[in-house]
């Protein structure tokens, strides 16, 4: 495995290897010494052209716990504001040495361009590209679900909300289908992509109809910054039909869990009571994100990459 660009590129065995490796990494958190020497001498560049709290910091924590050197690049405050291109930025960082590049970009496909262009020679991890994919988020979500539900084979997972703008939804649907889950996407018609029929999941406009048969429900952030009023006429109407409050949550089976990738719009797609409830695993998702990113960096960077297959 050389790069991690899409959740859809992972076979079931590859996905399970990452999840099983993350389980070992997760157990480190309970030990007095949380660091491993596995990536000593390797350099990981965090290349972030879009804002991030969870993904950027957890990749940094993950790399440091594996003893890698970390270079953090943020477009804000860099020469990108003077017009420097992705290519020249990449060449500049490569000149300083990079074994792995973690890239978040507002344009769909930017990490794929980095991986294929040769501007950087290291492994590329997609940390979220436009509205396209966010594979490590899907991995940490599957990891969190697996810890609560056991095998995801046949489990019913409902993903709710602004699917149109969500790279998290696409990566989750692809990965969960690979792991054998039955996924239903619930959204208003204006917030579903036109190519929905090619996604390996069912689609519904009716949240109340889906909740009683869900083992896990994942609420998506409403991405107001990416839409205009034609997509989203009324916040109150959206919350009434697609928000998860304590009354709706009561329809879930007893053992069902509630996820959200963050950042949350409390009071819009999810109420504060639900976000802070005992069913919510939202904070745990963040903890698990470090273990997943440790597993991904370890598997990509610790061995030889002579067999340069793209995962
Ligand atoms: N879930 C997620 O990608 O969060 P950040 O934007 O804070 O990284």
TrEMBL record:
GO terms for molecular function: amino acid binding; aspartate carbamoyltransferase activity. It comes from the Bacteria. GO terms for cellular component: cytosol. Carbamoyl phosphate binds at residues 54-55, 104, 134, 137, 262-263. It is an enzyme of class 2 (transferase). L-aspartate binds at residues 82, 167, 221. Residues 2-146 form the Aspartate/ornithine carbamoyltransferase carbamoyl-P binding domain. Residues 154-300 form the Aspartate/ornithine carbamoyltransferase Asp/Orn-binding domain. One of its GO terms (biological process) is amino acid metabolic process. It catalyses: carbamoyl phosphate + L-aspartate = N-carbamoyl-L-aspartate + phosphate + H(+). Its EC number is 2.1.3.2. Pfam families: OTCace, OTCace_N. InterPro entries: Asp/Orn_carbamoyltranf_P-bd (IPR006132), Asp/Orn_carbamoylTrfase (IPR006130), Asp/Orn_carbamoylTrfase_sf (IPR036901), Asp_carbamoyltransf (IPR002082), Asp_carbamoyltransf_Asp/Orn-bd (IPR006131). The keyword Cell inner membrane does not apply. Pathway: Pyrimidine metabolism; UMP biosynthesis via de novo pathway; (S)-dihydroorotate from bicarbonate: step 2/3. Keywords: Pyrimidine biosynthesis, Transferase. The keyword Thylakoid does not apply. Heterododecamer (2C3:3R2) of six catalytic PyrB chains organized as two trimers (C3), and six regulatory PyrI chains organized as three dimers (R2). Catalyzes the condensation of carbamoyl phosphate and aspartate to form carbamoyl aspartate and inorganic phosphate, the committed step in the de novo pyrimidine nucleotide biosynthesis pathway. Belongs to the aspartate/ornithine carbamoyltransferase superfamily. ATCase family. PANTHER family: ASPARTATE CARBAMOYLTRANSFERASE, ORNITHINE CARBAMOYLTRANSFERASE, MITOCHONDRIAL. This is Aspartate carbamoyltransferase. It comes from Kribbella jiaozuonensis. The gene is pyrB.
């Amino acid at each position: 495995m050389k790069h991690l660009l899409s959740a859809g590129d992972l076979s079931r065995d590859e996905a399970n290897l990452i999840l099983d490796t993350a389980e070992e990494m997760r157990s480190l958190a309970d030990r007095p010494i949380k660091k491993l020497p596995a990536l000593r001498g390797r350099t990981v560049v965090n290349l972030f052209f879009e804002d991030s709290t969870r993904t950027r910091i957890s990749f940094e924590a993950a790399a440091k716990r594996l003893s890698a050197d970390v270079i953090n690049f943020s477009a804000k405050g860099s020469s990108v504001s003077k017009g420097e291109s992705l290519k020249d930025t990449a060449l500049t960082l490569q000149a300083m040495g990079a074994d792995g590049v973690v890239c978040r970009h507002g344009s769909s496909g930017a990490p794929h361009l980095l991986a294929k262009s040769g501007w950087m020679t290291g492994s590329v991890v997609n940390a979220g590209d436009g509205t396209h994919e966010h594979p490590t988020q899907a991995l940490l979500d599957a990891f969190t679900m697996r810890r609560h539900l056991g095998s995801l084979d046949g489990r019913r997972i409902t993903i709710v909300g602004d699917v149109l703008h969500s790279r998290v939804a696409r990566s989750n649907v692809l990965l969960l289908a690979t792991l054998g889950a039955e996924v239903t996407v619930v959204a208003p018609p204006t917030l579903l992509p036109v190519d929905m029929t090619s996604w390996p999941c069912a689609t519904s406009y009716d949240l109340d109809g889906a909740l009683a048969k869900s083992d896990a429900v994942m609420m998506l952030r409403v991405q107001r910054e990416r839409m205009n009023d034609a997509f989203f006429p009324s916040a109150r109407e959206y919350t009434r039909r697609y928000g998860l409050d304590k009354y709706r949550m009561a329809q879930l089976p007893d053992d069902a869990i509630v996820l959200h990738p963050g950042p949350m719009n409390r009071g819009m797609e999810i109420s504060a009571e639900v976000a802070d409830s005992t069913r919510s695993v939202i904070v745990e998702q963040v903890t698990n994100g470090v273990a997943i990113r440790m597993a991904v960096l370890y598997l990509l960077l610790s061995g030889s990459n002579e067999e340069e297959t793209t995962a």
